[in-house]
Amino acid sequence: xxxxxxxxxxxxxxxxxxxxxxxxxxxxxxxxxxxxxxxxxxxxxxxxxxxxxxxxxxxxxxxxxxxxxxxxxxxxxxxxxxxxxxxxxxxxxxxxxxxxxxxxxxxxxxxxxxxxxxxxxxxxxxxxxxxxxxxxxxxxxxxxxxxxxxxxxxxxxxxxxxxxxxxxxxxxxxxxxxxxxxxxxxxxxxxxxxxxxxxxxxxxxxxxxxxxxxxxxxxxxxxxxxxxxxxxxxxxxxxxxxxxxxxxxxxxxxxxxxxxxxxxxxxxxxxxxxxxxxxxxxxxxxxxxxxxxxxxxxxxxxxxxxxxxxxxxxxxxxxxxxxxxxxxxxxxxxxxxxxxxxxxxxxxxxxxxxxxxxxxxxxxxxxxxxxxxxxxxx
Length: 378
Known about the structure:
This protein is rod-shaped. The chain folds into 4 domains: 6-53 and 311-377, Beta Barrel (conserved putative lor/sdh protein from methanococcus maripaludis s2 fold), CATH 2.40.420.20; 61-71 and 222-304, Elongation Factor Tu (Ef-tu), domain 3, CATH 2.40.30.170; 79-105 and 191-221, CATH 2.40.50.100; 107-188, Helix Hairpins. The protein has helices at 40-43, 107-138, 144-170, 175-184, 365-377; strands at 6-14, 17-25, 31-37, 47-50, 53-68, 73-76, 82-87, 94-95, 100-105, 190-194, 199-204, 211-212, 219-222, 226-234, 246-250, 258-266, 276-284, 295-311, 316-318, 321-329, 332-340, 347-352, 359-363. 23% of the residues lie in helices and 43% in strands. The strands form 4 sheets. Strands 5-14-17-16-15-18 form a 6-stranded antiparallel beta barrel. A 4-stranded antiparallel beta sheet has the order 6-13-11-8, with no helix packed on it. The chain is built from 5 helices and 23 strands. By secondary structure, it is α+β, with helices and mostly antiparallel strands. Mean pLDDT is 85; it is low at 1-32.
């Protein structure tokens, strides 16, 4: 059975504020409620408004970072083993598709060109042999079996030629290069390293004289006009994110810069290590103000609903609880505990403690509470 509580009242006027204390003493501790009567001077600092319904949306703020758009990044390597003889691109340099970044000298490329020239010579020779055999067959000098044998040798030579030309294409030679090689009949063992996209060189791992392999990454070129903003959502809040949702982002390194966009990606799986879901927002960067690896805040908002709201400036925080000053009469205010939801746009949804139409202090609550505390101390 709960103990009976015995009320005890007394009042005291200090510094123009009349405090009327009401103590109730249960067995375990005391619950203090203060009713204040403000002086005319203090009333001038206060503003009062009725508690009314308002729209309060929900939002989720996430730590994010700016990253490269991986669809606009290319890592460029050599198509053949060789030694670098020239480096034509440097960090931060803007390059166009097809532009030469470096030049290398390759004995491997030279040998492949030599094999190709030999194969073309063999094909030409075998064709002449087949034509001669056809004329001899018509004259009855040779049998048809000999002609078929020479045609088989021509077929083998054609296969070798196609293999040699395919090898040169793998090594980076174009059709125009092959035609030039056919025409000039001379070996050119230098191979250019070119970029496959327009962009900016953001990484260079090569120097003159270095021997490189096809597996080596020599340059990284990125199109920085479009980036990603990446964030991780805890799995318990994954329901917040849907592909196509409108979001906002702020980058502390660019004060006042607020960008809007849409979520272009929401991961279908939870990361087993971090227990989070990855989301991405497309970030237009035409002026290259945003830099990869910048920190940011990503805000996902949900449509609001109508409920009673309390302005954030009306709330007094004390002992890990929320209070507001309720007007109970002329210049009289009661400090009342309330239960509030999370702040959104300087407003907090009311969960418990007030009714529609009650008047609360929405401006100057700080001054009123200071007078209350000072009077208690005195």
